[in-house]
Amino acid sequence: MKNIRLLVMIEAAFFAAFAMILDFLPSIKLSPAISISFAMVPIFILAFRRGMLAGILAGFLWGLLQVMLGDAYYLTPLQFFIEYFIAFASVGFAGILAPLIQNNYQKGNKRIALAWVVAATFIGSIARYFWHFLAGVIFWGKYAPEGMSPVLYSFIMNGTTFVGAFVFCTIVLLVILASAPRLVQAETFMTKKQVKKAS
Q1: CA distance 57 to 61
Q2: Which of 123, 131, 130, 162 is nearest to 44 (CA)?
Q3: What φ, ψ does residue 51 adopt, rounded to 5°?
Q4: 138: which DSSP letter?
Q5: If exposure means fewest CB atoms within 10 Å of the residue's CB, which of 102, 143, 161, 173 is most exposed?
Q6: What CA–CA distance (Å, rounded) separates 54 from 18?
Q7: Angstrom distance (rounded) from CA 58 to CA 66
Q8: The pTM is what?
C-alpha cells in the first residue's frame, strides 16, 4: 500500500510538472487578460487515472510551481491563495468521475467512457474557474470598464476563458484517449484482496 501511495505522489509531481511545461507554450490570446491553453490536460489525465485526491494534489503542485517559477501575479495574499492554490487544486475534482471512466474502459464501452471524460473535464474546468470568477469579482472588479459591474466583468473574462479552456482540453483529451486509453487505466480502484496483498 505504501508503494502505491508513493507511486501516486510521484505521478502527481510528474503530471504537475508536465502541466507547467505546457503552460509555458504559446496559448490562444483573445486579449491581454484572456488566454486559452490546454495546460490542464495532464491534471485531468491523472485525475481520470488515479482519482480525485491525486488530481487535487497534482493541481496544487501545479499552482505551487507557478509561484516558484515566477509565473504568478497577485494583488493580495487571499487572492493569491485562491487563484494559485484553491483554483488549481480544484481541477482535480474531475477525478470524481474516474470510476465511471475506468469501469467503462474495462468493459469495452469506449464511447461511454469518452462521454464521461467530457463530463469530468467540464467538472474540473468549472471548479477551477468558479474560483477565478470569485476572485475576479472581489479583487479584480476595480479594473472593470466604467459602468460595468464587477460581477459581469468577471463573468465575461473568466467565462470566456472557462469555455475556451474546456473546449480546447476536451478536444485534446478525446484525441489522446481515443487512441491511448491505457493512459487512464491504472490500478486505482483496488479490490480488498489486492489491498491486503499490497500492504
Answers
A1: 6
A2: 123
A3: 105, 175
A4: I
A5: 143
A6: 15
A7: 12
A8: 0.88
**Cell numbers representing residue 195 in the block:** 489491498
- Does residue 191 surpass a pLDDT of 50? no
pLDDT given at position 33: 62
Residues in the chain: 199
Q: Which domains, and CATH codes, for the chain?
A: 2-188 (1.10.1760.20)
| Confidence at residue 194, expressed as pLDDT on a 0 to 100 scale | 42
**Residue type at 81?**
F
- Ramachandran angles phi, psi of 7, nearest 5°: -60, -45
Task: State the SS3 of 4-68.
Answer: HHHHHHHHHHHHHHHHHHHHHCCCEEEECCEEECCCCHHHHHHHHHHCHHHHHHHHHHHHHHHHH
Report the pLDDT averaged over residues 172-197.
Answer: 71
Tens of pLDDT, residue by residue over 112-138, are 999 999 999 999 999 999 999 999 999
Question: How many Cβ atoms are within 10 Å of 59's Cβ, its own excluded?
Answer: 34
Write down the mean pLDDT value for the chain: 89
Closest C-alpha among 63, 74, 37, 58 to residue 171: 37
